[in-house]
Structure formats: structure tokens, C-alpha cells
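pls design
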């Protein structure tokens, strides 16, 4: 028994000796071999300077620079390193702040951390930085850190490009990359492609003497890391077309969206009123944002993606013309008469004066309401199914055109528009208590339908392509990576031959129909006018178009609030955009026409002065 206990004692003693040796070796490594602990011990004479990367540049499809960087300087402070020798009055004088302001800032910064660097004064320009640089030795605990802010050379595309802003606590908690005082994409492409654009921060560790003077790199930069610049983006956008579109929409409210049908690449995305993106850069950003945000014309509102409650009007007749053929209720030769509108019992839907009766092509050319009221009711009253079942089949094809759902563009805050459901009408009228006549306003793009200008442009591209669209997108390429970005293809289950008939009708709209005032010399353009009813004033002017008819290169949707009929402002603007893109210039015969649109002011009274 004794020998057994002796063996156990030796085992326990051996284990304790081994454990002690491990601690001794580890302690030796920490105290003698590992410089990182020496670094921590000497932190009172070391300064960790964050090296901020240059944010990625942004170019248009032709290589024109849209977003660049400009150097600014942040005055940083480490509260623990401030000494009694600091010349507070001199610092306040240079920064043009009061002593009370200095104390208030320091109290707030110290609550965050006394040991970590914090921003005391941000975004100093070269002119502000120069007098400060000469006196830094008077301000122990303070140092200057170089930053870059955005610059927009062309002053266009504010809603597309977006802006950056100081990161908030929510973003810091969500992503440990960010710390207080960092900047982050706050809207537009700056926000959507933040991780690509931001790059990667680096750090430089330097030694500082008691006079706040940098004495050199610590241990020859052993603990430094280089900043990695953000990725440069090449957009699908055509900067010249974007600038021209913004000029056409000056003093008007609405938007223009232009898409290359074959690729889904967005050529222009115009919002009006717009704003100069340079206003939201630097120290004046907060003030300017407040002014823009309180403007009654809502210049910060992205109408192209977010105006989702406006009905598409008669532009939607092209969709019903296609669906009615697919359902077999209409052929190209089907005719309906129109006596200034459609009548069914006491119900009446008005229409304008035009030759009657019309076939399918003519119904598009003259935008006949009566024709589409008949067609739509034939779809919903088709034998073999209930009205609700036929309506569901109709709706299923409508959403195939990208309506009623978000398209998935690479911009934040896109809205889905609205294509009403069977459930909506069952809830509103009662199940089985609504008929085709109840919802006949959908035949002409009115009623509960809602579509964004982006969706209308995408719908137009689908018709131009005769049965498919590519998810619209703004990023063409990441400059450092090979290959062009491609959106997803969406095929619409409608026979291709039906699109040809509709395109013929859309061509007639421009040649001798409701959009005849907008013919382009030498270009076969297909289009469709639309009028969105507005109970609060002048109706909204809508026009969709694509050109050329064969192998179309551009599809456009124009929405002008309070612009009247589609042929009044929508069609002229769309035709000028198309002509500018395809010909790079406007024909001499159309210069007066162009001047009238450029100078038109639909914002009257006090609003026009803003």
C-alpha cells in the first residue's frame, strides 16, 4: 500500500513541476521575447495613426470620371495624453471656437474613451490645416490625420451616386471594421457598393516626444500595415446623356429612365428636381442636407425608384395587347368601335376623338379606351373559369413584365409598385361580388395599378426585346476585375409573334398617332403615350419609347408630373433623349423644338424660386 501512495505522490509532484516550468517559459517569452507586450507598455509614448484608404473612384461607361477624392484633415485627440502645458487658448483661436466649446467637446470625447484617439475637429481643408500644422507642438495629445472626401466633377447624378456620411453607432455595432469618426456610404451607389468602395484601413505606429513631436516609426514599421485602396467602379451610365436628361427636366418634376434593352444596362436615371452631390460633402453637409430635406419639392426623393403609386396610364395598353393575344381573345384583325368612349349600362369610360372602328394596331396608334375595355372584359369573362381565376391568370402575366415587384436594381430603397391581387378585391368588394366591369379601369392602366418610372422603362425594354428583359443595373465592371457584369435574364411566356404586332402599332403612334409630334429624322422610333390621372391638378405626362424598331439600342420611360397629356412633354423629352444618344446631336430642324422643352417651366410661383 505504501509503495502505491509513494508512486501517486511522485506523479503529483511531477505534474506540479511540469506546470511550473510551463508558466516560467511562458513568462520568459512574454517579458523577454515578445515585443508586442513592450509595445503595450510603452503606449504612452507611441501613437497609432490610422491610415485611411483612398475610396474607390467611379467612372461612366466611356471612362469619364464621375466621383474622385480630395484630401482633408481631421484633428484627433487622445484625452489621456493632454498635459497642463497645453495652450488651449491658442488652439481655440486657430479653430475659431470658444473655450466653453473646447471644454464641452473634451467632456464628450472623454466619456467615449480617454485612451483611444477621437475626432476633435473634422474635415479641415488645406487652408485651415496650414496654420494649425505649424503650432502642433503646443498641443500635446493632439495630432492630425489625413482623410479623403468625395468630389463630383460633373455635378450630376446625385441620386445615383449618393453620398457618404459619418458612421453611427448602429453601423459600428453591426460591423467591427468601423470606429467612431469613420465615413460610410449613406445613399446611392456609395451605400450599395460600400464594401467594394471603402478599401481596407492600415495603421502606422510612431514614437512621440514630450513636445508632441513625431520622432519616427516604431521599430522600423514592424507593426505597421498599409492601407488598401477601394475598388474603382465603371458604371453603365452615359454621363453626357445623364447631363442632357437633367437639363431637359430642369424646372419640371418627374424622371427619365433610359435602358439598353439587350443588356439591361441603365444609360440614364434622371430625377427632377435633383441636387448637386457636392453639397453633401465636407463640413457644410449637415446644413445643406437640412435645407434639401426641408425643400417642398423634395430634391432628395428618388422618383425613378420610389414614385410607385402613379398609374402607368395608356402605356399599359401595350401589355394588355400582348396578354389578350396570348389568351386568344384578340387577333391583329379584331375590331371594336368607339363612340367617344365605352358604355356598359350606366357605366361610361370616355375616350378622345379618332377614326372608328380600329384593329389591334390602330387601337395602339390612337390609344382607344373602348378597345381595351372590350379586350380586358373578354379576358376576365373568358368561359371555363371564374372571373377571379381569369383575373389571376391575367395578373400572373402582368408581373412577368417586372411590374408589381422590385426589379432588383443595384440601388437602395427601390419600391415595388402595385398590381392588385384577387385577395385585394375580395377584401374590398367581397368574395365573388366583383365582376370584370368592376375593375375595367385596369384595362387602360388606371385604377389600383402603380408603377415606378424604372419599371416602365424595363417594361418597354421587354417589349423592345420581344419577350425578355435583363435585370436593370448600374455597375458595368469593377475595374480591377475581369469581365462585364451581367444581369439575370427574365423570359416572358408570351409568343414572340405577338410582340411584332404590338411594335407595329407603337411605330404608328409616332408616325401618325398620339405621339406624332416627336418623330426623329432618320430614326424609326416606337412609342406609346400615357396620361396618369391627377385629381389634384393637371394630369401627369407619360411616354415610353424604344429605337430603332429593329435591333433597339435604347428604351426610355419619361414621367412628368402635371405635364398634361403624354404627347405634350413626355413624348418630346423621350424623343430628344433617344436622338441625343443615337446621333450624339439634335437635328437643326428640331433645335426650336428642343429649346421649347429646355426652357419650359412647370414649377410656378414660390416653388420655382427655390
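designed seq:
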Amino acid at each position: 500500500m505504501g509503495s502505491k501512495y509513494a508512486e501517486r505522490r511522485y506523479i503529483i509532484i511531477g505534474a506540479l513541476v511540469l506546470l511550473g516550468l510551463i508558466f516560467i517559459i511562458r513568462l520568459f517569452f512574454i517579458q523577454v521575447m515578445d515585443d508586442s507586450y513592450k509595445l503595450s507598455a510603452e503606449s504612452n509614448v507611441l501613437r497609432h495613426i490610422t491610415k485611411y484608404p483612398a475610396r474607390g473612384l467611379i467612372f461612366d461607361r466611356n471612362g469619364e470620371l464621375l466621383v474622385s477624392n480630395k484630401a482633408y484633415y481631421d484633428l484627433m485627440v487622445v484625452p489621456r495624453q493632454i498635459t497642463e502645458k497645453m495652450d488651449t487658448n491658442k488652439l481655440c483661436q486657430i479653430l475659431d471656437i470658444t473655450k466653453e466649446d473646447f471644454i464641452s467637446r473634451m467632456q464628450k470625447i472623454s466619456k467615449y474613451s480617454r485612451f483611444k484617439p477621437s475626432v476633435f475637429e473634422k474635415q479641415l481643408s488645406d487652408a485651415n490645416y496650414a496654420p494649425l500644422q505649424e503650432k502642433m507642438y503646443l498641443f500635446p495629445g493632439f495630432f492630425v490625420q489625413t482623410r479623403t472626401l468625395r468630389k463630383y466633377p460633373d455635378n450630376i447624378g446625385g441620386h445615383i451616386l449618393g453620398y457618404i456620411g459619418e458612421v453611427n453607432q448602429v453601423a459600428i455595432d453591426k460591423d467591427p471594421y468601423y470606429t467612431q469618426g469613420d465615413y460610410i456610404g449613406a445613399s446611392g451607389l456609395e451605400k450599395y457598393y460600400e464594401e467594394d468602395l471603402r478599401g481596407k484601413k492600415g495603421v502606422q505606429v510612431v514614437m512621440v516626444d514630450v513636445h508632441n513631436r513625431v520622432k519616427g516609426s516604431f521599430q522600423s514599421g514592424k507593426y505597421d500595415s498599409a492601407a488598401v485602396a477601394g475598388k474603382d467602379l465603371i458604371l453603365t451610365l452615359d454621363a453626357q446623356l445623364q447631363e442632357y436628361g437633367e437639363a431637359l427636366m430642369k424646372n419640371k418634376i418627374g424622371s427619365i429612365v433610359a435602358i439598353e434593352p439587350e443588356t439591361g444596362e441603365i444609360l440614364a436615371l434622371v430625377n427632377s428636381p435633383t441636387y448637386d452631390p457636392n453639397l453633401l460633402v465636407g463640413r457644410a453637409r449637415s446644413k445643406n442636407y437640412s435645407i434639401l430635406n426641408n425643400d417642398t419639392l423634395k430634391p432628395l426623393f428618388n422618383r425613378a425608384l420610389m414614385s410607385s403609386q402613379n398609374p402607368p396610364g395608356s402605356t399599359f395598353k401595350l401589355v394588355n395587347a400582348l396578354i389578350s393575344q396570348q389568351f386568344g381573345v384578340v387577333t391583329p384583325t379584331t375590331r371594336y368601335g368607339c363612340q367617344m368612349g365605352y358604355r356598359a349600362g350606366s357605366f361610361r369610360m370616355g375616350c378622345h376623338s379618332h377614326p372608328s372602328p380600329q384593329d389591334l394596331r390602330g387601337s395602339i396608334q390612337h390609344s382607344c379606351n373602348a378597345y381595351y375595355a372590350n379586350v380586358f372584359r373578354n379576358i376576365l369573362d373568358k368561359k371555363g373559369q371564374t372571373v377571379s381565376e381569369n383575373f389571376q391568370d391575367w395578373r400572373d402575366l402582368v408581373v412577368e413584365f417586372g411590374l408589381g415587384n422590385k426589379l432588383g436594381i443595384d440601388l437602395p430603397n427601390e419600391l415595388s409598385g402595385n398590381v392588385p391581387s384577387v385577395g385585394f378585391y375580395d377584401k374590398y368588394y367581397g368574395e365573388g361580388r366583383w365582376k370584370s366591369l368592376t375593375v375595367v379601369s385596369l384595362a387602360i392602366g388606371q385604377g389600383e395599378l402603380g408603377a415606378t418610372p424604372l419599371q416602365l422603362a424595363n417594361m418597354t425594354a421587354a417589349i423592345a426585346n420581344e419577350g425578355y428583359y435583363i435585370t436593370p443595373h448600374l455597375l458595368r465592371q469593377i475595374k480591377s476585375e475581369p469581365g462585364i457584369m451581367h444581369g439575370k435574364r427574365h423570359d416572358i411566356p408570351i409568343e414572340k409573334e405577338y410582340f411584332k404586332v404590338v411594335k407595329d402599332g407603337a411605330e404608328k403612334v409616332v408616325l401618325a398617332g398620339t405621339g406624332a409630334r416627336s418623330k426623329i429624322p432618320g430614326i424609326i422610333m416606337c412609342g406609346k403615350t400615357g396620361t396618369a390621372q391627377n385629381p389634384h391638378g393637371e394630369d401627369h405626362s407619360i411616354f415610353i419609347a424604344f429605337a430603332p424598331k429593329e435591333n433597339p439600342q435604347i428604351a426610355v420611360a419619361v414621367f412628368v408630373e402635371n405635364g398634361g397629356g403624354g404627347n405634350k412633354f413626355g413624348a418630346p423629352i423621350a424623343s430628344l433623349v433617344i436622338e441625343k444618344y443615337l446621333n450624339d446631336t439634335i437635328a437643326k430642324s428640331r433645335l426650336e423644338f428642343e429649346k421649347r422643352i429646355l426652357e419650359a417651366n412647370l414649377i410656378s410661383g414660390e416653388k420655382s424660386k427655390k
